[in-house]
Design brief:
two-stranded antiparallel sheet, single chain, 66% helix, mainly alpha, elongated, 2 strands
């Protein structure tokens, strides 16, 4: 561990020590600032120093949020393919369930059309509901991708000190869909 150098002067110097800690992501990322101001300096110098520290903290916060958005984008891009696999699996399970009931009915030698029991009908409806939910989830993940990409572009613009880009039509449509769904 290194020690902080100490400078001794014959004159007493009074100063104000300022420390600021900014938590970017609780439990993970934080910034700590420490600086000293001469007590004889005007108060505006302290305000400028705090504004400078705040600007650095805000920019680093934007970078942290952008990193999180990029991770969310990767997940969102992978989810529709996974959801399609889940939908296909559910459809196969539903077909197998119905085929098993049909085979049992045919093996029984009955000539009447297949009539499912209330429990079997409930199970079939549960499959249909799960498939519908998976289809909706896949649609939602696909709709989220342009929104997240636009949010990343906005964060990049803010970090670079540029104006954020206009939202593409597909983002406005996706936001409208979300409002209608709520």
């Amino acid at each position: 561990m290194t020690s902080t150098p100490t400078v001794e002067t014959p004159l007493p110097i009074s100063g104000l020590g300022i420390q600021r800690r900014v938590i970017l992501k609780p439990g993970k990322d934080d910034l700590q600032f420490a600086f000293a101001l001469d007590m004889t300096a005007p108060v505006e110098d302290a305000y400028q120093a705090m504004d400078f520290v705040s600007a650095i903290a805000d920019r680093e916060d934007l970078k942290t949020r952008m990193r999180e958005k990029r991770e969310a984008l990767e997940v969102a891009k992978q989810q529709p393919a996974q959801m399609q696999k889940d939908i296909e699996r559910l459809r196969v399970q539903r077909a197998a369930f119905l085929a098993a009931r049909t085979a049992v009915h045919a093996a029984s030698g009955r000539r009447s059309p297949l009539k499912l029991t209330d429990k079997a009908q409930g199970d079939l409806e549960k499959f249909d509901e799960q498939i519908a939910q998976a289809v909706m989830a896949a649609k939602n993940f696909s709709r989220d991708i342009p929104i997240i990409e636009w949010e990343i572009a906005c964060l990049e613009a803010k970090i670079d000190g540029r104006e954020p880009p206009e939202a593409p039509n597909e983002v406005a449509d996706a936001i409208e869909d979300l409002k209608n769904a709520a």
